[in-house]
Amino acid sequence: MTDSTESPDLQRRSGLRRLKEGTYGGFFAACAAITLLTTVAIFATLLSDAVVFFAEVPIIEFLTSTNWSPNPAGGGQSFGIVPLLIGTIVVTVTAAFIALPTGTLTAIYLSEYASPNARSILKPLLEILAGIPTVVYGYFALVYITPVLKATLFPEMSTFNALSASIMVGIMTIPMVSSISEDAMSAVPDELRQAGYGLGATKFEVSTGIVVPASISGIASSYILAVSRAIGETMIVVVAMGAQARMPAVGETLFGIPYFNPADVLLDSGMTITVAMVQIAGGDLTGGTIPYDSMFALGLALFVVTLVMNVFSDIIAERYREEY
Amino acid sequence: MSNTSSDTTEDESLITTEVETGSANWSPALGETAVAARDLNVFYGDEQAIDDVSIEIPEKRVTALIGPSGCGKSTFLRCINRMNDMIDVCRVEGDVEFGGKNVYDADVDPVALRRKIGMVFQKPNPFPKSIRDNVAYGLKIQGYDGDVDARVEESLKGAALWDEVKDQLDSSGLDLSGGQQQRLCIARAIAPDPEVILMDEPTSALDPVAASKIEDLIDDLAEEYTVIIVTHNMQQAARISDRTAVFLTGGQLVEYDDTAKIFEDPEEQRVEDYITGKFG
Amino acid sequence: MATDNANADGFGEVSRVRGILFEYLSLGASVAGLVALGVLLVYVAIDAFDLASASPGWLLTYFLTLVIPFLAFCLYSADDSAVTRRVLVVLAGGLVAVAVIFTAIEAFVVTIPRLSWQLTYLFVVVAPATAYLAYVGSHGRVGAVGFGLLGRLVGGTAIGLAVGTLFLVFDELVWFLAYTLGVLPAAALYAYGRRRDAGRAVTAAIPVGLVGLVAAVFLRGVVRTYPSDLIIYLWTLAVPIAAVGALVVDARGSRTAAVAAGGVPLALAIAGGFLAGNVGLPGPTTLIVIALTGVPTAIYVHRVVDVGDGTVGLGLPLLLAAGVIVGALVVEAWGVPAPDPWLDVSYVTEAPSRNATEAGLYPAIVGSVIIIALVAVLSFVLGVGTSVFLEEYMPETGVLGSLTRLLQINIANLAAIPSVVYGLLGLGLFANLLGFGYGTAVTASLTLSLLILPITIISAQEAIRSVPDDLRRGSDAMGATRWQTTKNVVLPEALPGILTGTILALGRAIGETAPLIMIGAATTVFSAPSSLFSRFSAMPMQIYAWAGFPQAEFRYGVVAAGVITLLIILIGMNGTAILLRNRAERGS
After folding, report:
1. Residue B258: beta bridge partners?
2. What are the backbone dihedrals phi and psi of residue B254, each rounded to the nearest 5 degrees, phi first?
3. Is B158 a domain residue?
4. Nearest Cα to B243, choosing from B224, B262, B230?
5. Which of A245, B85, C71, C267 could covalently link to A271 via disulfide, CB atoms 3.0 to 4.6 Å apart?
6. Which chain A residues are closer than 8 Å to B107 by Cβ?
7. Is C417 close to A108, i.e. CB distance below 8 A?
8. Interchain CB contact of A8 with B (< 8 Å)
9. A10 at interface of B, judged by CB pairs closer than 8 A
10. CATH of the domain at B254
């Protein structure tokens, strides 16, 4: 040993160095704590104002009333979520009709058919679809899609309508379906495919008969995430769908089950939960009024629905994941 | 040896006792004990990796730990500088003494401990920094105040790498060949002037020529440092070590003696079987 | 298989028709969304630049003066006869094909609004061919040099403009004092300490800097006289940038080159700064832009000339500039009818207006830049802090392991919460409860930071996880504390990945609109914000506001120009992120 002090000093560091080390650790912990606090803050913010709202408007009325008019000209406010739910559901379902099949087929193509080269080009390009600002999609729907649809397929369509908005929401959510589904399909081991080919199956039969069923939990969880994204989508519908909370004409079928004609809603302007929130925010932000509080009630509904769907999708992906 | 006794004054009594009550294999001619384990048991969860090992490792000698894979020799090595702390499920019982101090005492800072004990890994792992910064790393984190460049040069010479890299100290350590990278890691380990150098199969990822350079280097290192090397190459252990400890399955230390004794006339039949290749 | 019994003389054949149909169906699905988006982008570009009214002569002029030279440059750089042949075939064949098909559709099926076959050719054939050639060309040395220089010019200008914009809200006098009293002494101490190996000087740098900063804030109210803005920018930004440039060049050897690399851009910047006022440009911003563009350019030119390979590529910016000028002269001389683009210089420098032709995006652009700058700082610090905590400090098992998992699940859930709900959080917490005000830049930045935080964290975690464990163990075994290992080994390795993820997340933040509406951001403001607490607008807010205007000039002109501006900024950010990632991947 060249050093003169050989007796090892292994004591825990005290003083400045210890403090420095602790400070950094504490800082990182504080950063992580902020993520937890965000969730708590969101929940607390929504709940505190929602509670005030439900003190004024009974929850039953909120859930069953078919009239949404928070700021009527002549007075007589009404806070019924039903028309908003109908608008949200119509947009979400229509968007799902576009995004789910397209996204699934895209995932199959990427995972089973595409050459590595094509995949390396297509995957980042598809991500662009999710990266375009939603207000831009809304503008596209309003200014380009609606006139084209009006000129060709639906002459009776109004300037603001649910269909154009839904198409754009659908296109935007394609990559959400395709990327998660493709991950699940790529995780299917090649032995399973080999087994299929060994039995004389064609590539089509292997893709649809073996790979898709084997990755069904991943596909399902991607569907739920995409639908939850569509439910929360705001700007596309705000710009392209207008802001009229309309209740479609409800008919009764056999056994008294109510129904409405989707075309009534699709081709006309309407309102989703998110649009209702934006509309109120555009006018009144001072707080303390019932419309102000109603935003938080709607936000709470949205928050709970998306959270439940997200957790549900996690559970599906976890529980039904095939262990290879 | 004479210069060391003065430095361990505060623990002198303890060390003296150890020397006297040491195992039967202990030969006083080897000098002071650098590292000692007493009744060491290590568990990974429920699995026992080290089974009641006691050993005294002399300073400024090369001590080889050999044995079949999974015998606990690497685990033992990592107990000495408490690298096992990084593994959540690892539990250590018993004492490991370094300079007469149990490193598992509550007041011991593993970070301070590792600054006294260098380590070289199986796979060369130079940092993605310049050669100079790699060697100076230990000095930097310890807040070394002296002439860094001189220490870098001294360490690279000590690792027999200086002549090959002296003109490219600012190029990346990753640009070197595997053998050079491993010598760079050795230079990095000796730069802060540790007392002990732990080597975990340092040549197993290298080609034979590079490996033999490292072996020569280990010989030189033992003049200044206590070297503890894990290897599963028995020829290597025989070539370079002064003392050899044989671990067999289950984490038991079966025999520990002068290398010549172990390889020529082992006490235990199991050790002889292992060394002659009957199993392992 | 003509015989009845196929098995008698062969194995028969299994029909693949279904499979082939399915393959093409899935291929079609994969590109359907992209094609739809492509068509929409083409139309919005046509509207923004008024290309519908561009005469064929105008298109041809710029095709010949700008596009053809650029393609020739890329071909020269690629130096591959196969590529040349392929591109020429595509360009020529595409011309014929597009003209024929387009005319046929117009004649027999339906008229296509606002498109001519020439425009279609440009978008469908020339644009992809150019992109492909630029990609191929950039792999040649000449092309790499050309694009490298171009990138420094554009990047320097963008950063310079952004810095100039930030000083609209940040007090430059505080910065002047802080730089003079804190930053400069600290940097000098640090540099001295490193050069002389005096550890004490290095350690002293941080406290000295802090004292300086505190003193600056204190003195701001006391000191009465200050130098002019131009002098402040010169002293605090241009001179240090030039000095750093000179040092970089000096480190590579030549002293005279170093003086030139620092001095020439500095002289140009000073000249530009003092003369800008005469042509109606803001002097300080001009100074910063020239300094930030000139110094990196000078360093790059010196390096290229020093290496002596592909120097021809340095001519690319000149080639393009010459193309624009010649094109403009030809259009002017021959009176070729030119389009009148909505997106022009006045659009990005003027305030919004009820009158479509005078409407501009300037205050919204400034608002967006300020918000994004704050969001970048906040989300980077919080994102890196959280990911380091989760990856380096927390165990994966035991009681703390469950806490890690809880944090992880929470972050995943935060990422799935609709942005409009974050808007409510901002409204309830930052605007009302904490009193940061409705629609202020501070409220917006905090809200958007929390919104993109989960994305930043997740990508930063991936980057940190990709650092090999070998390196951590190596550092730990040297006796490094956890923080030392993190700072010296993990973060330097993970930084490119972290930056990439952060920039991509910022791209998300810059386009977010719903949260801004919820916190009460103004749809339209007529002057740029002057402080962090003044009401501001942002690009997407302005687009949202204009999209509601019924006039066609707004719908098909002003908004289109806004959309293109926003998308260009987005592409610039994402392109930077991808370049960063590629460079990091090549480096390791």
Report:
1. B243
2. -90, -40
3. no
4. B262
5. A245
6. 10-12
7. no
8. yes
9. yes
10. 3.40.50.300
Residues of A in contact with B4 (CB under 8 A): 1, 6
Chain B residues with beta carbon closer than 8 angstroms to that of A12: 107-109, 112
The Cα angle at residue C269 between residues C265 and C271, in degrees rounded to 5 = 120
Asked whether residue B140 is assigned to any structural domain, the reply reads no
Instruction: Check if C199 contacts B (Cβ < 8 Å).
Output: yes
Test A143 with C556 for CB contact under 8 angstroms. yes
- Per-residue pLDDT band at A74 (split at 50, 70, 90): low
End-to-end CA, chain A: 55
Q: Does domain C356-587 have CATH number 1.10.3720.10?
A: yes
Task: Report the domain count for chain B.
Answer: 1
Pick from C411, C413, C421 the residue to mutate for testing the A interface (most A CBs within 10 Å): C421
Q: Residue A17 above 80 pLDDT?
A: no
* Subunits with 3+ C-beta pairs closer than 8 A to A: B, C
Subunits with at least 3 CB pairs below 8 A relative to chain B? A, C
Selection from A28-42, B3-17, B132-146 with the highest mean pLDDT: A28-42
Give residue limits of the domains in chain A. Answer: 77-243+261-319
Domain range for residue B72?
2-116+194-275
For residue A234, the number of C-alpha atoms closer than 13 Å in the C-beta half-sphere is 26
* Contact flag B86-C477 (C-beta cutoff 8 Å): no
**Residue C117 CB partners (closer than 8 Å, separation 6+):** C98, C99, C102, C103
Residue pLDDT, tens place only, A104-118: 999 999 999 999 888
Handedness of CA C108, C109, C115, C119 (dihedral sign): negative
Rounded distance, CA B33 to CA A24, Å?
38
Compute CA A109 distance to the chain's CA centroid, rounded to the nearest angstrom. Answer: 24
Per residue in B152-178, pLDDT (tens digit) is: 999 999 888 999 998 888 888 888 998
Asked if residue B239 has pLDDT above 50, the reply is yes
**What are the distances in angstroms from CA A194 to CA A120, A188, A215, C51?**
24, 11, 16, 54
Domain membership of residue B106 (yes or no) is yes
Out of A300-314, B16-30, C185-199, least confident range: B16-30
Our CA-based measurement puts residue C468 at a distance from the nearest CA of chain B, in whole angstroms, of 9
| ipTM summary value | 0.90
Confidence of residue B101 (pLDDT cuts 50, 70, 90): confident
Query: What is the CATH superfamily name and number for domain A77-243+261-319?
Result: MetI-like (1.10.3720.10)
Which residues in chain A have Cβ-Cβ distances shorter than 8 Å to C411? 35
Q: Give the residue-averaged pLDDT of B99-109.
A: 85
Residue pair A10/B101 in contact by the 8 Å Cβ criterion: yes
Residue recorded with tokens 């890299």: B165
Q: Does some domain include residue B46?
A: yes
